[in-house]
TrEMBL record:
Domain Kinesin motor: residue ranges: 14-443
Species per Swiss-Prot/TrEMBL record: Angomonas deanei
Annotated positions binding ATP: 129-136
Key words of the record: ATP-binding, Microtubule, Motor protein, Nucleotide-binding
Record-linked Pfam families: Kinesin (PF00225)
Signal peptide extent: none
Gene Ontology MF: a single term: ATP binding
Protein name: Kinesin-like protein
UniProt xrefs under InterPro entries: Kinesin_motor_CS, Kinesin_motor_dom, Kinesin_motor_dom_sf, P-loop_NTPase
Family: Belongs to the TRAFAC class myosin-kinesin ATPase superfamily. Kinesin family.
Biased composition (Basic and acidic residues): 461-472
């Protein structure tokens, strides 16, 4: 965004950092049973969930370090419940508890970023942590939600006010009536139905298992329609990008045909780095967005390791470009543009512990290299925010940090979710994640509303392709 389009005054903004402690997974639970101990190495203050303390397993669980974050989420339901749910071994109450955790995380992490974006601020949410610590679950939801089968002919139904209502999943051929409209559905959107998921067919939305991305997507569409209902002069346009950084190569997750797995180049411009040739899709509703997310998730590189049955081998970045147009009484147009980056980072891992070799060893090396660079960038930006002189920020040492340069240290309200394991076997990795997270919250940037006033002659061209009240 060019400086002449930023007409509001600068506002200092500190990076917001949250911590999410996942429960023991199956392997950690087995270790606990074998040792007859409960090696829980993290403690969240019951009276102040912003405080978290590490407990040193080498010193009889004595407190080691205490950190202060925006909030720490200590998930109480074992993550293995999602796996056991498919076998009917957990009850509905436990499933709902997982959903409440997801809802709480979104209300604190995702919703404020969306609110700011709709006001014209750039925003970013990224999940950072060890492999298998819950990043993808936090950002997307259970793995199979992200890749569930989807019948594009069965969208969510939008009521007269423009607000979306879910269509209850039914067997193929059954009729579903909502607000007087009859629809025939196979499986609903991938975020609504879990027929192929670990919960064995329970509806995602009612179970509450959706992560930040699907919740934010749905609320973004709903809020824009609400704003338009209140102001007939408002129209909007949403464009979407989805790409991954795999082995330091940028690849489009939404491209078709022979262009798959083609490496894209990161270029520089006066307004900052951009990805040359990256596809950008115009989307009008959540059905279109979910379909594209599903396509991208199916293309994303994953693999099984000793640490994680479905380990992300790439960093995935989903970007929304939101443009809002408004006409005043004199037919003069104004335009607010914001960008939302939603980032699911690949997890750091010890190559020995994760049991990777060959191709996966190379992947792990590249992942760790980019995450190391991210740590150096975070450290440099924190030092710059403390007015230290002569600090060099190594953005260009990795495509990950170069692509996210503006989100990390530019005109952006950024939120980090640090995901950690509470088990003693992962103590060092957990401590490292918390150190990075603590450093990240020291980053302060200058942010502005991206508003561009335009004259009457420009309003027709600017509004072309936007969703307005007359379109519905």
């Amino acid at each position: 965004m060019n400086s002449q389009n930023r007409i509001s005054s600068d506002e200092a903004n500190a990076t917001k950092v949250f911590v999410r402690i996942r429960p023991f997974n199956v392997k950690e639970r087995k270790l606990t049973e074998d040792t007859k101990q409960l090696p829980y190495v993290l403690r969240v203050d019951e009276n102040n969930p912003s405080l978290i303390t590490t407990l040193d397993p080498s010193k009889e669980m004595l407190p080691k370090d205490t950190y202060v974050f925006e909030r720490c989420f200590d998930d109480l339901v074992a993550s293995y419940a999602l796996e056991e749910g498919a076998k009917g071994k957990i009850d509905a109450a436990e499933k709902r508890k997982v959903g409440k955790d997801q809802s709480l995380v979104y209300s604190h992490v995702g919703k404020p970023v969306l609110t700011n974006a709709l006001q014209g601020y750039n925003g970013c949410v990224f999940a950072y942590g060890q492999t298998g610590s819950g990043k993808t679950f936090t950002m997307m939801g259970p793995t199979n939600i992200a890749v569930a089968k989807c019948d594009p002919s069965t969208p969510r139904v939008r009521d007269k006010k423009g607000l979306s209502e879910s269509v209850t999943p039914r067997l193929s051929g059954e009729s579903n009536e909502t607000n007087g409209a009859t629809q025939t559905s196979g499986v609903s959107t991938p975020m609504d139905a879990l027929e192929d998921s670990a919960l064995g067919g329970e509806e995602a939305e009612s179970a509450g298992l959706e992560g930040i991305i699907p919740r934010l997507t749905r609320e973004m569409i709903d809020e824009l329609h609400r704003k338009r209902e209140k102001d007939s002069s408002l129209s909007f346009r949403i464009e979407m990008e989805y790409f991954e950084i795999y082995n330091e190569k940028v690849m489009d997750l939404l491209t078709a045909g022979g262009n798959k797995n083609v490496e894209l180049r990161v270029r520089n411009s006066a307004s900052g780095p951009y990805i040359e040739g990256l596809s950008r899709k115009h989307v009008e509703d959540e059905r279109q967005i979910f379909k594209l997310i599903r396509k991208g998730n199916l293309e994303r590189h994953t693999a099984a390791t000793k640490m994680n049955d479905r380990s992300s081998r790439s960093h995935a970045i989903l970007s929304f470009h939101i443009t809002q147009f408004r006409l005043d009484m004199n037919d003069n147009a104004s335009k607010i543009v914001s960008k939302l980056n939603l980032v699911d980072l690949a997890g750091s891992e010890r190559t020995g512990a994760s049991g990777v070799e060959g191709k996966q060893f190379k992947e792990a090396t590249k992942i760790n290299l980019s995450l190391t660079t991210l740590g150096r960038v975070i450290d440099a930006l924190a030092s710059i925010s403390q007015n230290k002189k002569g600090v060099f920020c190594p953005y260009r040492d990795s495509n990950l940090t170069w692509v996210l340069a503006d989100s990390l240290g530019g005109n952006c309200k950024t939120t980090m979710v640090a995901t950690v394991s509470p088990h003693a076997v992962n103590f060092e990795e957990t401590c490292q994640t918390l150190r990075y997270a603590s450093r990240a919250k020291q980053i302060v940037t200058k942010v502005v509303v991206n508003e561009d006033p335009t004259g009457p002659s420009n309003q027709t061209a600017d509004r072309r392709g936007a969703t307005s009240a007359a379109d519905h």
